[in-house]
Amino acid sequence: MADDPKEQQPPPLGSAGEKPAAPGAAPAPPKPVAPPVPKAPPVGPAPLDNDLVKRYRARFGAAIREAVEDRKQAILVVEREHLAEIARYTHDEEKFNLLSDLTAVDWPKREKRFDVVLNLYSFTHNARLRLKVQAGAGESVTSVSGVWPTANWLEREVYDMFGIEFAGHPNLQRILLPEEWQGFPLRKDYDILTQDQAWVRENLGIESGQ
Amino acid sequence: MGAGEPGDRERAVAEEGSKNQTVENTLKAGPGTLLGADELILNMGPQHPSTHGVLRVKLKLDGERVAGSECVIGYLHRGVEKIAEHRTYQQFGPYVDRMDYVAAVSNGLGYCEAVEKLLGVEAPPRAKVIRTILTELQRIASHLLWLGTHALDIGALTPLFYCLREREEILKIFEKYCGARLTTHAFRIGGLQYDAYDTLEKDTERFCNDFHRRIAEYEELLTGNRIWIARTQGVGILSAEDAIAMGVTGPVLRASGVQWDIRKAMPYAAYDQYEFDVPVGKTGDTYDRYLVRMEEMRQSVRICMQAIQNIPAGPILGKVGKVMKPPVGEVYHAIEAPKGELGYYIVSDGTVQPYRVRIRPPSFVNLQAFDKMVRGHLVADVVAIIGTLDIVLGEVDR
Fold first, then answer.
1. Quick one: which of B268, B313, B315, B389 has the fewest CB in 10 Å?
2. Domain A46-176 classification at class level
3. What confidence tier does A12 reach under pLDDT thresholds 50, 70, 90?
4. DSSP secondary structure of chain A
C-alpha cells in the first residue's frame, strides 16, 4: 500500500525499508542489478530528494504529510486543502514544469478512499516527483489545470472514471464515456459483471451473458 | 430522389439544424464560444478517413477559418485499465499491444520494464539489446505509417505506397521473430520468450542499409516539394512554452525546440550504450514535425546498426518466478514511444494481480494541444494538424 511506507526522515537509502514483508523480497534481487549502474541514473536521486523534501517541509510544514521513496522515486503526500499553493510552488520554484500524468487510485477500505496522483517531471533537474492527495468520497480536489494546463483532460478522465470532483475545473464533464453513463468504472466497487448482466437483461432479454 | 420529395440534402440540413443546437450548447461552456452571425459548426468524424480512427471533431468556423474546436473521443474505449485489475501481470501483457496498435512492440517494452522495476528484477543484457533493436524497428514502422497517411491526407498519394513497402519489411522481421506482425506481444516480463532467430542481424542490416536510400527517396518527394511546403510550413505552430504547458511529448515537443528524449534523459533498455542524436525543430510547425520524424528514422537506423554489431550472448530471461507477486508499492516508468512519453503507473498490493494500472498515453495528451494548434487555420489544415500530431485512437481511448 502506497500510503504506509515509512516516514520521510531517511530517504537516502529509502527503498530498503518498506514493510516487514517487502524487504525480504524486494532488495534481494536489486543486488545483482546494481553493477550495471548506468541504468536509470536520474541525477543521484537520494541526496536531492532529501533537500527537496526539506525545502518542502520548511515551506509548508504539516501540509506535507508524508515523504516517501519507493523504487527510487520520490513521493510527497500533501494535504488536500493546500494542493493549490503546493502545486504552484512545485511548478514555479521547483521547476517541475511538465505534468506527465494525473490519475487516481481507489482504496475503498481507507477512511479517505481516493489517492489523486500527479506524476511530475522537471526538465531543469531531469527528475521526477510524485505528489499525492487523499480525498474522501464526495470531497473535491482543487483543479491544477491553472498551473499545468494539461491537467484539463487528465482531470476530466479521473472524474469520468472515479467520480472525483475537481474544484475550479473549466469544463468538468465525462471525456471517454458517454454523458449518460451510470457509475464510475475504475472504482473498486464497480463490478464489471453486474453491468454486463444489466445490459443483456435489458437489451437481449436473457439473464446473463456469461 | 424524385422531384418534390425532400432530398437527402434537405433532410440532412433539417437534421443538422437540430444537431447544431446541441452542439452549440456544448460549445457554450468555454468562454467566447457563442456563435456569431457568420459562424458555423462543422462536424468532422468519427467516420472520417483523415481522423486516423474514430476521432470526432466539432469545428466552429468563421468562414473558412477555424474559430474553435472540440474533440469528442471515447469511441474506442475498452476499459483497458479496469481489465488490468482482473488479470495477472503476465496475462495483461497482450492487452497493451492493443492500445497503440501500430507500435505494439513499444507498448510491450514499457509495460514489461515497469513490472520489472516493480519486481526489482532486470532483463539480461542480451534481452535488452534485442528489445532495443525491435523497438527501434517499431519506431521506424510507426513513423512510416504516419508519413504515408499524413502525406495522403494532404494530397500526396505516392509516399503511402513506398512507406508501406518498407514497413512490410519490418513487419516481416517481427513475423520471423515472434510469429505476429501487428500485435506482437514480443517481450515477456523479465526478458524475452523467444531468442533472436538466426538471421535477425542480417535481416536488420539489410533493411537498414536499404532504408538510407529509401528515406532519401521520400525526402525527394516531399522535403523540397512546393505544395508540401505550402501545406505544412507555418501550419499548426506550437511554441515550446505551450507544448510544455500542454504536456506534449515526443516528436511534437522536439519539433517545438525542446531537446528532450527519454531515451537520453532517463535511459532504459540498452539505449545508454548507443550513440544517436535527438533532432529538434525551430518553429514547431507541421513542416518541422515532419523533418524531426524523418531524422528520427535515420537515428533509429543508426541505433539498430550499432546494436546488431554486438548482441551479447547469455540468457534471455531474468530470474522471475512463474507466479509474480511484486512487493507492495508502486512505480511510474515511462519510455519514449514513437508518439511520445508512454508511462505506466502500477500499484501493487502484493498479490498476483495489479491493484491499479494507469497508462499514460502520449496520443491522449498530445491531442489536447489540437485546439490550440488549429485555431485560425483553414478547414483544409485541420487534417494536416490531426495528421501531424500522429495520434492513434486505440491509445487515446484505451
1. B313
2. alpha beta
3. very low
4. -TT-SPPSS--TTGGG-S-SHHHHHTTTTHHHHSSSTTSS--S-HHHHHHHHHHHHHHHHGGGEEEEEEETTEEEEEE-GGGHHHHHHHHHHTS---EEEEEEEEE-TTSSS-EEEEEEEEETTTTEEEEEEEEE-TT--EE--TTTSTTHHHHHHHHHHHH---EET-TT---SSS-TT--S-TTSTT--HHHHHHHHHHHHT--S---
